[in-house]
Amino acid sequence: MGEHTVTSFDDDLGHIDQLIRDMGDLAGAMVAAATRSLLQNDTALAQRVISDDVVMDARQRELDDRAITLIAKRQPMAQDLRSVVGAIRMAADLERIGDLAKNIAKRVNAVGEGSAPRGLSHSIDTMAQMVMDQVGAVIAAYEARDAKNLVSLREDDEKIDVQYTAVFRELLTYMMEDPRNITACTHLLFCAKNLERIGDHVTNIAENAYYIVTGQQLPLNRPKLDETSVTVDSE
Amino acid sequence: MGEHTVTSFDDDLGHIDQLIRDMGDLAGAMVAAATRSLLQNDTALAQRVISDDVVMDARQRELDDRAITLIAKRQPMAQDLRSVVGAIRMAADLERIGDLAKNIAKRVNAVGEGSAPRGLSHSIDTMAQMVMDQVGAVIAAYEARDAKNLVSLREDDEKIDVQYTAVFRELLTYMMEDPRNITACTHLLFCAKNLERIGDHVTNIAENAYYIVTGQQLPLNRPKLDETSVTVDSE
């Protein structure tokens, strides 16, 4: 394979990586805006998140098309092929993060104004901040091809799960105190759950990035979904 | 490309399709068992669903490995490449269906015995049945390369969303009637939500199968996530 071909492949892959970065930036911005729209009852901002999701979906399609064209055109071998397939998977997770942010934004009206007491807003905000940090960090670690950081990012997802469990309990308490809180709190519960799931998608991205960088799969014991069932059960 | 090469590629693809079928069967069985364990408070059955998920994850890894080896070895062109990449995506959705069934099973203890009144159990059961039918039907339509059926399956997801909204409302009512129901109902709410999300994954599978069969993407207006936010808002 000549030098020219190799460079062209790298150029093509560079375009795909640029799309991953763009999607990562958009995902982080959507999570931030969705959370702010929820906690400040900002319906205009919520609407923007919903529009952003259309952009996100288009980016994913563009990446998929480029990736498949690249495989067909260049017929890459092992390591290169791994990068392209990994990029397709990362894009799918980023697209899902966009969906989840959109779903938070769509609940802004249902939650309404002043439904979340200060303590609860703070807990949700803390959780959202942790999630946003993870989204930014995983894209940065992928760009830096930093395998060690990718492993620790996967482990950090546990902290989000712990915070989710705290929010879950706060919400239950608040619902039990006054049945009039139930509808709004149910929607907030799904918002918190969406943030927790965004954390799971970051974990998936870290795993795929690790696979691209090292050629090896991480062991199968990644943290999965939430553990509130177990937590509540043991109370 | 010689006859021999084509046949070998088809053999390899046949193995991958067999894994899709196996994963589809397992996914349907897991959803059925998870729902039964939930509604009959059968913790032993719930435990089996949790174990089944390990098998599901292993199947997905096997399919991924085979698919990537196939691309590297055979360097397939357009249509064939599309089939392999589509299979990777379908496997990812089936694996997520397994995760969601497992999450239902993990909530069996938290929901406990006799928490769901007869009417509610019936609504959840109806929803689960619709979801199971969809899981079975999408794999069958893929096997039959039936593009028309794949389109209508994607549209059928709306019926699941309608049933989810009904369950969501029943659960809210039940929580408001008696605060002692709140914890159990919250878990049932997530179970119903998981079923609704399994429907979304069936939609994704239908879209990927359609792409494999026809070479064309379905338009972007697929039903996404739930609409209870909007529903509640308009009440």
TrEMBL record, chains A, B:
Keywords: Cytoplasm, Phosphate transport, Transport
Cellular compartment(s): Cytoplasm
Pfam families per UniProt: PhoU (PF01895)
InterPro entries tied to this protein: PhoU (IPR028366), PhoU-like_sf (IPR038078), PhoU_dom (IPR026022)
Organism domain of life: Bacteria
Domain PhoU: 20-108, 125-208
Its biological purpose: Plays a role in the regulation of phosphate uptake.
Quaternary structure note: Homodimer.
Similarity annotation: Belongs to the PhoU family.
Protein name as annotated: Phosphate-specific transport system accessory protein PhoU
Provenance organism: Neoaquamicrobium sediminum
Upper taxonomic lineage: Bacteria, Pseudomonadati, Pseudomonadota, Alphaproteobacteria, Hyphomicrobiales
Gene that produces this protein: phoU
